[in-house]
Specification:
The complex is a heterodimer. By secondary structure, chain A is an all-alpha fold. In chain A, 82% of the residues lie in helices and 0% in strands. Chain A is globular and about 45 Å long. Chain B is α+β, with helices and mostly antiparallel strands. Among the domains of chain B are: 67-123; 130-237, Alpha-Beta Plaits, CATH 3.30.70. Helices cover 52% and strands 18% of the residues of chain B. Chain B has 7 helices and 8 strands, in the order H-H-H-H-E-H-E-E-E-E-E-E-H-H-E. In chain B, the strands form 2 sheets. A 5-stranded antiparallel beta sheet of chain B has the order 3-2-7-1-8. Classes of the chains: A mainly alpha, B alpha+beta.
């Protein structure tokens, strides 16, 4: 409940404030957002599976974000930033899809 | 995908919908543990980041793009620019063509109008005014004959008359003169004395042509008639000649070889 409220407040703040993304963060923010979404869906799935743990959620969220950003950073340093970004997005996308599929089965039995 | 299938198999054993919803509502209950607050903070950050990134992406300039993207954008822009340039040049050419076409059309109309005016004055279908003379021959005894008038017209033309009118008859190329019981006949119309002849051209030569010894004035006076000639700044030849289409004469095409 409180995290959901936080999400809404964050969205509202972002929409209202129009903050500019610092140049150094610009390549990493989209990937970090995708990774965080993956963590969020994973958390919801864990809730439905009955194995949700706040601490696990927080740690997985942060590690997802950091690792995704680090992979992109590494890719940029190696000169394969765009390819690696695509790879990360694909992997995270697959994970999000499988998490959503699991959530769907829990909720709708379909 | 592997995991997905695993889940599918796992789900088939217990149908967990009521418990799943219950778990969801249970976990949705506000709890103020430290980790929950931390999760809320993270969720807030995520929302903020999503909104920021979406906004950034929508208002993104070129600075966030990679080199290859920039290159392809530049390429597209260059192609587009050259295409538009080409199109602009074509449209410019069309515009120039139309402008010159309309101006040459206007000058053609002007030339045609001038030609129409000249031909109208020649053929007697247009009124004319300008400097000229006005002659009045009073002939109470009826002694003035049509050859004398014909001679007078001939003399006037010799003196440069461009438009001539006798009483209310316009004198044109096809005009013919004949006798009538009470006066004369021009182009089939009765013309009775006094004769008023109006001619447009330089007045002085025409007046002197009328006054020369052996000319019209002398002949008329010998017959006992009177003649008055006035040179005027602006006379009007207002009578019109009605054109009839030629029945027999046909124009020779301009391209046909000239017959000797």
């Amino acid at each position: 409940m409180i995290p959901a409220l936080g999400l809404l407040i964050g969205l509202a703040a972002g929409i209202l404030l129009h903050p500019a993304v610092p140049l150094a963060l610009q390549p990493y923010l989209p990937i970090a957002v995708i990774a965080a979404l993956d963590a969020v869906f994973g958390g919801v799935r864990a809730v439905l599976d009955g194995i949700f743990n706040d601490k696990v959620f927080v740690v997985s969220f942060l590690s997802n974000v950091v690792v995704a950003a680090f992979i992109v950073f590494l890719g940029d340093q190696l000169g394969v930033g765009s390819q690696l970004s695509t790879g990360v997005v694909v992997v995270l996308g697959i994970r999000i899809f499988s998490n959503v599929a699991s959530i769907r089965r829990h909720l709708f039995r379909a | 995908m592997n995991q997905d299938q695993d889940n599918a198999h796992a789900d088939e054993a217990p149908p967990p919908t009521p418990s799943a919803l219950r778990r969801l509502s249970l976990s949705a209950r506000p709890r103020t543990t430290k980790a929950n607050l931390l999760a809320a903070l993270l969720a807030l950050l995520l929302g903020f980041a999503v909104a920021t990134q979406v906004h950034q992406n929508q208002s993104a300039g070129l600075e966030t793009l990679r080199q290859s993207d920039l290159l392809s954008i530049l390429d597209n822009a260059t192609n587009e620019a050259s295409r538009l340039d080409q199109s602009a040049r074509e449209l410019q050419a069309t515009r120039d063509q139309l402008v010159s076409g309309s101006s040459s059309g206007a000058s053609a109309i002007k030339a045609a109008q001038q030609r129409l005016d000249a031909l109208g004055i020649l053929a007697g279908t247009a009124r004319a005014h300008g400097p000229g003379i006005r002659m009045t021959i009073t002939d109470p005894a009826g002694k003035v004959t049509f050859p004398m008038l014909l001679d007078a017209i001939q003399e006037l033309r010799d003196a440069g008359a461009e438009a001539i009118q006798v009483n209310d008859v316009r004198i044109v190329a096809s005009s013919h003169f004949g006798p009538r019981a009470s006066g004369i006949e021009i182009d089939g119309k009765n013309v009775n004395p006094p004769y008023t002849i109006t001619a447009i051209a330089d007045p002085a030569p025409m007046a002197s042509a009328m006054e020369i010894p052996g000319g019209l004035s002398e002949n008329v006076r010998q017959l006992g008639a009177t003649i008055s000639i006035s040179q005027e700044e602006d006379v009007t030849v207002g009578a019109l000649h009605t054109l009839s289409a030629p029945r027999y004469a046909r124009p020779v095409p301009a391209s046909a070889p000239a017959t000797p």
